[in-house]
Design brief:
Layout lengths: L8 E2 L3 E3 L2 E3 L10 H15 L1 H9 L3 H15 L1 H4 L13 H8 L5 H24 L2 H8 L2 H20 L3 E3 L5 E4 L7 H16 L1 H8 L2 H8 L3 H13 L14 E5 L2 E6 L3 E2 L3 H7 L2 H4 L4 H35 L3 E2 L4 H18 L11 H11 L9 H17 L1 H7 L3 H23 L3 H6 L1
Parallel strand pairs: 1-9
Antiparallel strand pairs: 2-3, 4-5, 6-7, 7-8
Helix pairs in contact: 1-18, 1-19, 1-20, 2-3, 3-18, 6-15, 6-16, 8-15, 8-20, 9-10, 9-12, 9-20, 10-11, 15-17, 17-18, 17-20
Length: about 450
C-alpha cells in the first residue's frame, strides 16, 4: 500500500545513506498525464540516434541500445531522491562532437569519448562525496548564477537558428545546421501552441473555467507533439509514421532499420554495443586521451553546474506555490547520481549526449502543472518520475518509436525553444539587483 504524505512534510522515503529511496506506486503516485507526455517525448531522446550515427557511424540498433541504457539510468534520479527530470548536457553536445571528430577512426574516437565521460563522471562523484558540489552552488554569486542560466538559454536558441551552411560532397550548400530551417512551418505552429498552453495567462484563466481546457492544460506538451505528427506532412517537412506490425525488421527511415519482436517490442543490440563500442572492443584509452580531454571536461562541468542552478531555482519557485510538500533538492546527491550515470555509460555505452542533471524544458512543464495544486499533481516526485518512466516505456515499444520517429527534430527543437525561453526568464529572476543583471 502506498505511503501518504502529511501536509507540509516531505514525500515518504526509505533512508539509504545520502540517498532517499522512493519506489513508484509505493512512495509516490504515478501521474498519468506526465507518463503519457514521457511516452511521446521519448522522441527527443531518440534524436540521439542520428547524432550517434553521424558522429561515430554507429548502427541504429546499437544507438538505440545506448538510448535504452540512458533511459534506465534516468530513472535513478527520482528513485534515489532527486526531484528532477534528468536529461542530456545539451549545450555541450556540439562541443563534444567537434572534439571527438578531431580523432581519426572509430577506435580513437570511442577511446576519446570513454576518457572524457569517465573523467566527467568521477569528477562529479568526488564533488558529491566531499560535499563541495552543494558549496559551489551556494557560494557562487547570484549574478554569476543568473549569467549561467541565461547563457544556457541563449545557447539553446542559437542551436535552433544556427545558419552555418551544410555542404554536400561537391561543396554545394544543401541547407543550414539549425533545426528551424528543416521544419520552419511545423516549428512555428507547434512552438506557438506550446507557448500558449504552457505560459499564457489567458489560457490558464480559460482552463480554470472549462473542464475540457483544464484537461488539455494538464497534458502539458503532449498535444503539441501529437499535432506535430500531422502538421509536418501537410507542409512536406516530415512523413506520416510507418508501422511494421508483424515484421522483425522495421524501417524507420531510409537507411535506418530497427530490429523488433513482431513489430511490437524493440530489440536493442546490447551485445554489439558492449563488444564493439566500449573498451572491450576498442581497448582502454591511454593517459594521453585523458590529458587531452581535461579542457572538454571543464567546459561540460560548467554547463552541468548551470543546470543544477536552474533546477534549484525552478524547484524553489514551485515550492512557493505548494506549501503542502517540502521539496528537498540536494546538489551533492545530484552530483553522485549523474556522476554514477556518466561513469556507468563510459564503461557500458559511451554516449555523446552525456548524462546531465536536468531536462530543463520538461522540468518546466512538470513544475508548471505541479503549481496548480495537489489535485493536479500529488507530489513533485510523482510528476518527474512519471516522465522518465514514460520515456523508458516508449523506447521499448516499437509502435511508439515508429509513431514519433518522423518528428524527432521538431520535438528536440520545441524543447530547446521552451528551454531557451524559461532559462532567460529564470535567469533574470535569479538576479537580485540591476547590477546583477548587468553582470549576467
Amino acid at each position: 500500500m502506498a505511503y501518504q504524505r502529511k501536509y507540509g512534510e516531505e514525500q515518504p522515503y526509505h533512508a539509504l545513506g545520502p540517498f532517499k529511496l522512493r519506489i513508484p506506486f509505493i512512495h509516490y503516485k504515478v501521474e498519468l498525464a506526465d507518463y503519457l507526455q514521457g511516452l511521446v517525448m521519448c522522441a527527443v531522446c531518440l534524436s540521439a540516434i542520428p547524432l550517434l550515427q553521424s558522429c561515430l557511424g554507429m548502427p541504429a540498433e546499437v544507438a538505440i541500445a545506448v538510448v535504452v541504457l540512458n533511459g534506465i539510468l534516468y530513472c535513478t534520479h527520482v528513485l534515489l531522491g532527486d526531484p528532477v527530470v534528468p536529461g542530456w548536457v545539451t549545450p555541450a553536445i556540439p562541443l563534444l562532437m567537434s572534439y571527438i571528430m578531431m580523432y581519426n577512426g572509430k577506435a580513437e574516437m570511442v577511446k576519446a569519448l570513454i576518457a572524457f565521460e569517465l573523467m566527467l563522471g568521477l569528477l562529479a562523484i568526488v564533488l558529491g562525496i566531499t560535499k563541495l558540489g552543494k558549496k559551489l552552488v551556494a557560494i557562487i554569486p547570484s549574478s554569476i548564477q543568473s549569467g549561467l542560466i541565461i547563457g544556457a538559454g541563449i545557447s539553446a536558441i542559437i542551436k535552433v537558428f544556427d545558419v552555418t551552411p551544410v555542404l554536400d560532397a561537391n561543396g554545394v550548400q544543401t541547407g543550414m545546421v539549425g533545426y528551424f530551417w528543416k521544419y520552419p512551418f511545423s516549428i512555428v505552429i507547434c512552438i506557438g501552441l506550446a507557448m500558449f498552453l504552457l505560459f499564457s495567462n489567458r489560457f490558464r484563466y480559460l482552463a480554470k473555467n472549462n473542464k475540457f481546457l483544464g484537461f488539455i492544460s494538464n497534458l502539458g506538451i503532449l498535444p503539441v507533439m501529437i499535432l506535430a505528427i500531422f502538421v509536418g506532412p501537410i507542409f512536406c517537412e516530415t512523413v506520416l509514421p510507418h508501422f511494421g506490425f508483424g515484421s522483425n525488421v522495421v524501417e524507420l527511415s531510409k537507411g535506418v532499420d530497427l530490429h523488433t519482436l513482431g513489430g511490437f517490442i524493440t530489440l536493442p543490440d546490447f551485445k554489439q554495443l558492449f563488444t564493439e563500442w566500449t573498451f572491450v572492443g576498442v581497448g582502454f584509452p591511454d593517459i594521453s586521451y585523458f590529458i587531452k580531454g581535461i579542457p572538454m571536461v571543464i567546459a561540460a562541468y560548467i554547463i552541468l553546474f548551470g543546470d543544477m542552478v536552474q533546477a534549484d531555482a525552478l524547484l524553489k519557485d514551485a515550492a512557493k506555490k505548494r506549501p503542502d510538500e517540502k521539496i528537498d533538492y540536494n546538489p551533492n546527491r545530484s552530483h553522485l547520481i549523474f556522476g554514477f550515470r556518466n561513469t556507468f555509460m563510459s564503461i557500458f555505452g559511451p554516449d555523446i549526449t552525456m548524462c546531465g542533471p536536468l531536462w530543463a524544458a520538461m522540468q518546466v512543464v512538470v513544475t508548471d502543472r505541479y503549481k496548480k495544486g495537489r489535485k493536479s499533481m500529488d507530489s513533485i516526485h510523482g510528476g518527474t518520475g512519471s516522465v522518465r518512466l514514460g520515456t523508458l516505456t516508449g523506447y521499448l515499444l516499437t509502435p511508439i518509436v515508429c509513431f514519433v520517429y518522423p518528428i524527432l527534430g521538431i520535438a528536440l527543437t520545441s524543447t530547446l525553444l521552451i528551454q531557451g525561453y524559461v532559462s532567460v526568464r529564470v535567469g533574470v529572476q535569479k538576479a537580485r539587483t540591476v547590477n546583477d543583471i548587468g553582470i549576467a
